[in-house]
């Protein structure tokens, strides 16, 4: 029996892996600070196509980031949050608007390429131990706004900027989440005005967002226990393979 008639013939049983990945991704994101936006396209694109994925993740991320801020509230660096938002919000509007102009193939190429590039980018910045001050954070945030506005899985850029600016430990996760809430509101507003937030987008966003709510609190109990190098290696492999799959499917 199809409980979601009109939503591309997606059945209740097909939604189970979406819910499972949403919970897993929220735990991963709560531990590492990134991963939620990178993992969800891998299960959403085969079901709904590439075009609705960024709006779905933008809405569902409001749930995950809100719970993450609540769990790690005392660690938020409000000064650096303000620096990033002042510089990133205008360009975020531009990036989100550009995404609404893409075809399904273009959306798949953008998301897939971002996933593929996120892994070497994170490793490169970590290897070179890049450090920046407030000016560097502001300039980097200007470029980050364009990318986050039109892609999923771009959280690694913000995390790299925050760590390079001197934010550490739980402060990175908390500050990233606080910034992402405001960025998410802007993206959702642009998508709403452009008319790309459909009933299907709302259903999938609510499903993934509500299922993922406990993830931040589960992650908080694991944050000092999980072997991060193992988790990072597995996540990098999944993100790379998923990005390659999306790009391959877009060009064939």
Number of strands: 0
What is the radius of gyration?
17 Å
The coarse overall form would be: globular
Q: Give the helices and strands as they follow along the chain.
A: HHHHHHHHHHH
Structural class: mainly alpha
| Residue share in β-strands | under 5%
Distance between the termini: 32 Å
What integer is the average pLDDT? 78
Q: Considering DSSP H and I runs of 4 or more, what fraction of the residues is helical?
A: over 70%
**Helical stretch tally:** 11
Which stretches are poorly predicted, pLDDT < 50 over at least 5 residues? Answer: 1-6
Main sheet overview: none
Spell out the blueprint of helices and strands.
Elements: H1 12-32, H2 36-48, H3 53-71, H4 78-100, H5 104-128, H6 134-150, H7 155-164, H8 170-194, H9 199-212, H10 215-222, H11 228-251
Helix pairs in contact: 1-2, 1-9, 1-10, 2-3, 2-11, 3-8, 3-9, 3-10, 4-6, 4-8, 5-7, 5-11, 6-7, 7-8
Q: In short, what is this structure?
A:
The protein is mainly α and 252 residues long.
Structure description:
The chain has 252 residues and is mainly α. The chain has a domain at 16-73 and 98-129 and 150-156 and 184-251. The protein has helices at 12-32, 36-48, 53-71, 78-100, 104-128, 134-150, 155-164, 170-194, 199-212, 215-222, 228-251. The two termini are 32 Å apart.
Name the descriptors.
252 residues, mainly alpha, globular
């Amino acid at each position: 029996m199809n409980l979601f008639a009109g939503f591309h013939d997606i059945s209740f049983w097909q939604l189970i892996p979406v819910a499972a990945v949403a919970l897993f991704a929220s735990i991963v994101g709560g531990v590492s600070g990134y991963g939620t936006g990178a993992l969800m396209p891998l299960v959403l694109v085969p079901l709904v196509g590439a075009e609705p994925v960024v709006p779905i993740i933008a809405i569902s991320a409001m749930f995950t980031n809100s719970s993450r801020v609540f769990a790690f509230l005392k660690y938020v660096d409000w000064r650096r949050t303000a620096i990033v938002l002042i510089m990133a919000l205008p360009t975020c509007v531009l990036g989100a608007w550009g995404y609404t102009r893409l075809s399904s193939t273009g959306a798949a190429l953008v998301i897939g390429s971002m996933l593929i590039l996120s892994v070497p980018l994170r490793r490169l910045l970590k290897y070179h131990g890049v450090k920046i001050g407030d000016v560097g954070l502001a300039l980097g945030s200007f470029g980050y706004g364009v990318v986050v506005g039109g892609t999923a899985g771009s959280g690694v850029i913000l995390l790299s900027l925050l760590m390079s600016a001197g934010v550490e430990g739980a402060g990175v996760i908390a500050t990233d989440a606080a910034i992402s809430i405001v960025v998410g509101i802007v993206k959702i507003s642009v998508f709403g005005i452009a008319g790309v937030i459909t009933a299907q987008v709302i259903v999938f966003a609510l499903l993934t967002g509500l299922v993922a709510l406990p993830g931040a609190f589960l992650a908080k109990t694991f944050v000092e226990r999980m072997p991060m190098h193992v988790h990072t290696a597995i996540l990098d492999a999944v993100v790379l393979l998923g990005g390659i799959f999306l790009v391959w499917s877009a060009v064939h």
